[in-house]
Automatic annotation (TrEMBL):
Family: Belongs to the MIP/aquaporin (TC 1.A.8) family.
Ranges annotated as spanning the membrane: 26-48, 60-80, 101-122, 142-164, 171-191, 217-237
Assembly: Homotetramer.
Biological process per Gene Ontology, one example term: chemical homeostasis
InterPro entries: Aquaporin-like, Aquaporin_transptr, MIP, MIP_CS
Keywords in alphabetical order: Cell membrane, Membrane, Repeat, Transmembrane, Transmembrane helix, Transport
UniProt topology in membrane: Multi-pass membrane protein
Single GO molecular function: water channel activity
GO cellular component, one term: plasma membrane
UniProt name for this protein: Water aquaporin 1 splice variant 1
Pfam families noted in UniProt: MIP (PF00230)
Gene giving rise to this polypeptide: AQP1
Cellular compartment(s): Cell membrane
Domain of life: Eukaryota
Length: 261
């Protein structure tokens, strides 16, 4: 999707009647976020009667690889944002119209809630625990938690914009894998601090199902702030320059990047 250049394009209301495939993109965001929360939080469940507790690395890999596989699977449909912080960053950099973005965020939250509800239904009640709910370490203040969430989400969104910059010719390997690994590495470091949400929907789903809303604002404000900073920085300072073809040095590749791993 090219960057919008007018207020009408920015609002995107024309998509309601003109885009027959809009429902597919919304369904993709719902399904992608559902499995992100279901599989990711599934790795957080401990079977205490058997003396089993998941490790930090296991949880980090669970979330990171799930993000990578979902991006590979549905990236061509919706761009696989599956994260309101990514969607907000796309709004401010004019990569997605407002109406579509709001629909994405609603579907992401609904998918997260459905994923958490499925996890609760399929897990024995005596080992539910918090169903993988993100919670601040008791030694942290809310402000510190905000800072951690902002910085780790900054890393994620910066990687998203970097690997999906269509002006770059030096990106090698798998874009979805790079994005998934950014999630993994931030989880390894931040799980003991905040649970490493990096995604407001990921925290919203379990909070809705468990009723644990303590410091929930941290998991919206931190990731959204970090995503805005990363998206704005990449768009204004880090975006690759326009390419010149070998046959015609005056012809520029004006394609705009989009979040489609």
């Amino acid at each position: 999707m090219p960057a919008w250049s007018t207020a009408r394009e920015g609002l995107g209301l024309q998509e309601v009647v003109n885009n027959k495939d809009l429902w597919k993109t919304l369904l993709a965001e719902f399904v992608g976020t559902l499995f992100l929360v279901f599989i990711g939080c599934l790795t957080c469940i401990g079977w205490t009667d058997e003396g089993y507790a998941p490790s930090v690395v296991q949880i980090a890999l669970g979330f990171g690889i799930t993000v990578a596989t979902m991006a590979q699977s549905i990236g061509h449909i919706s761009g696989c944002h599956i994260n309101p912080a990514v969607t907000v960053a796309m709004i401010v950099t004019r990569k997605i119209p407002l109406f579509r973005a709001l629909c994405y965020i609603v579907m992401q939250c609904m998918g997260a809630a459905a994923g958490s509800a499925l996890l609760k239904a399929l897990t024995p009640e005596d080992i539910h625990g918090t169903l993988g709910m993100t919670q601040l370490n008791p030694k942290l203040t809310a402000a510190q938690g905000f800072g951690v969430e902002a910085l780790i989400t900054f890393v994620l969104v910066l990687v998203v914009f970097g690997v999906c910059d269509e002006r770059r010719e030096d990106v090698l390997g798998s874009g979805p894998l790079a994005i998934g690994l950014s999630v993994t590495t931030c989880h390894v470091g931040a799980i003991k601090y905040t649970g490493a949400s990096m995604n407001p929907a990921r925290s919203f789903g379990p909070a809705l199902v468990t009723g644990l809303w303590d410091n929930h604002w941290v998991y919206w404000a931190g990731p959204v702030f970090g995503g805005l900073l990363a998206g704005g920085l990449y768009a204004t300072a880090f975006r690759a320059g326009r390419l010149h073809s070998a046959s015609d040095s005056d012809r520029e590749d004006t394609k705009m990047e989009k979040y489609e791993p």
